[in-house]
Amino acid sequence: MTQDQNAVQAPKEEEQRRRKRDLVRMLAARGLRGKRTPIEYRSVEIDGSTLYYQEAGEGPPLVLIHGLSGSGRWWRQNVNFLAQEYHVYVIDLIGFGHGRRQRFVLARMAQIITRWMEALEIERAILIGHSMGGFISADLASNHPELVDRLVLVDAAALPMGRTRAQTAVALVRAIFEMPFNFLPILFGDAMQAGPRTIWRAAHELLTSDISARLNRIQSPTLVVWGQNDWLVPLQIGVRIYDRLDDARFVVLPRAGHNPMWDRPDAFNAVLDDFLHDRPVSVGAGSGQATRR
């Protein structure tokens, strides 16, 4: 192919990619998911533990990390959308989901995921972490910025909240009453799988850990996205995280609680799509957003 032909071909390929993205976003806005992408279940031995994960789609690597008491199932309404354009990896943290009956240690999780990326020869990835998974994602991005292409922190418990365990329990009960009814079987099923000992240990470690001094070491463009009605990890935490980042966008999703990726999946997916393609984020009336570069 000649140089002139290459010059003509490149804009055509970019136009085709743009049309595909627009089609995917349109399907999401209408509550559809298009053709289901096959999901493969895998596991890797890392430092004496087994890390379970799912794979779907082709393209740049994108890693989804769930929160406390969760599993990869919490991303069920987002995986197919993202897999239209990315190679999606959905992790079950050690001690949770398929990784149950293994000892969870919060301080080790970022390093284990780093070793897992090495094992799969993932040089750089987009990291999306929810709640405790946001803590882990921020921890990894601050210690290994070379591994993170873009970072998304979803209602991330990445800063101390200054609560007692009793206050956290009250906030949890209130958050549960705000959750959609169809999410509750997943919430309670995953909690039963993990067991009270793992949940208690993880909650204790999360409440007593502090990586705030390292957040300014994050170099990747970062999206901080929050549910407006999150009683478990207050919106103020999102504001404080955003204030510590040099290259960040902050988006608040109205009519969403602690799990905006489940509460409002279409709006959440559209926000991700805008951010990942470096477009202005638009989430409709009642939302709030800010940008720092």
What does this structure look like?
It is built from ten helices and nine strands. It has helices at 3-29, 79-82, 106-119, 132-143, 165-178, 184-194, 196-208, 235-243, 260-263, 265-276, and strands spanning 39-46, 49-56, 61-65, 87-92, 125-130, 148-154, 222-227, 248-253, 288-292. Strand 1 (39-46) and strand 2 form a beta hairpin. The protein is globular, with a radius of gyration of 19 Å. The N and C termini lie far apart (39 Å).
Name its key features:
Rossmann fold; 9-stranded mixed β-sheet; 10 helices; 9 strands; 19% strand
What is shown here, in short?
With 293 residues, this protein is of the alpha/beta class.
Question: In one word, what is the shape?
Answer: globular
**Helix residue percentage:** 40-55%
Tell me the major beta sheet.
9 strands, mixed
How do the SSEs run, as a string of H and E?
HEEEHEHEHEHHHEHEHHE
CATH hierarchy, class:
Alpha Beta
Structural class: alpha/beta
Question: Count of DSSP E strands?
Answer: 9
Q: Averaging pLDDT over every residue, what do you get?
A: 88
Cα-atom radius of gyration: 19 Å
> Order of strands across the biggest sheet?
1-2-4-3-5-6-7-8-9
Q: Provide the domain count.
A: 1
CATH architecture: 3-Layer(aba) Sandwich
Name the poorly predicted regions.
29-33
Task: State the distance separating the first and last CA atoms.
Answer: 39 Å
